[in-house]
Write a structure and sequence with these properties.
The protein has about 210 residues and is mostly helical. Helix content is about 80%, strand content about 0%. It has one domain. Helix 3 packs antiparallel against helix 4 and helix 4 runs antiparallel to helix 5. The chain is globular and about 45 Å long. It starts with a helix and ends with a helix.
Length: about 210
């Protein structure tokens, strides 16, 4: 009896630990976090200037915080179920906010003559948002997966094959999104495909 209880408790603790790890991964590799992280990488790839890269990363972070505050406000008002906006029918409003955010950011990049790589990267994000908004009518594609896979695709095109190692993060994030029950497998795959295809097409056409 004691042995059975011990096994049961061990399984519960292991499950809780897995969920905590999955949530941590989801936060570190969230769409907004990846945008900030990618800002630094793309700027550095284009300029090799670490201080300029940090400058644009701070600007990106400030805009992200504004967007996050707006999302939090809608969560408090009951318009969004949570910060991930897990409910599919609520996502059109999220995509509208993302669309506005991306448009404002691209305008800032243009006005202040940002590095070409950063400008292209944000055009890719802009288009990913549009495609996800359309796809959302049929399936709740993972925004986390789309932004991460899109960013990694940009890194490979701009920085070379050495950045292919980054694609190892895709199954890690996919596991996290499934473990936290935020998405089904097909939604994770859909988001990944959208990110890679849109970012790849942007790089081939621009």
């Amino acid at each position: 009896m004691k042995f059975t209880v011990k096994i049961f408790l061990s399984k519960i603790l292991n499950l809780k630990m897995r969920i905590l790890v999955a949530k941590a991964i989801s936060n570190i590799l969230s769409a907004l976090a990846v945008v900030v992280e990618a800002t630094f990488v793309l700027t550095y790839l284009g300029t090799k200037n670490i201080f300029l890269s940090l400058e644009w990363t701070l600007i990106s972070s400030a805009l992200i915080l504004v967007l996050l505050a707006i999302v939090y406000y809608f969560v408090r008002k009951g318009k969004f179920s949570d910060l991930d906006v897990s409910t599919q029918k609520q996502r059109p409003l999220l995509f509208l906010l993302d669309f506005i955010f991306a448009a404002v950011y691209i305008s800032i990049l243009y006005l202040f003559h940002a590095p070409k790589e950063l400008f292209i990267g944000n055009i890719a994000v802009f288009l990913v948002v549009i495609v996800l908004a359309v796809v959302n009518k049929f399936i709740k594609a993972s925004v986390h997966m789309a932004v991460l896979s899109g960013a990694l695709t940009l890194f490979v095109f701009m920085g070379g094959l050495v950045y292919l190692w980054g694609f190892l993060l895709i199954p890690v994030l996919a596991w996290a999104r499934l473990a936290t029950k935020r998405h089904a497998p097909k939604e994770v795959i859909a988001g990944t495909v959208v990110g890679i295809l849109v970012a790849g097409l942007v790089m081939l056409l621009l």
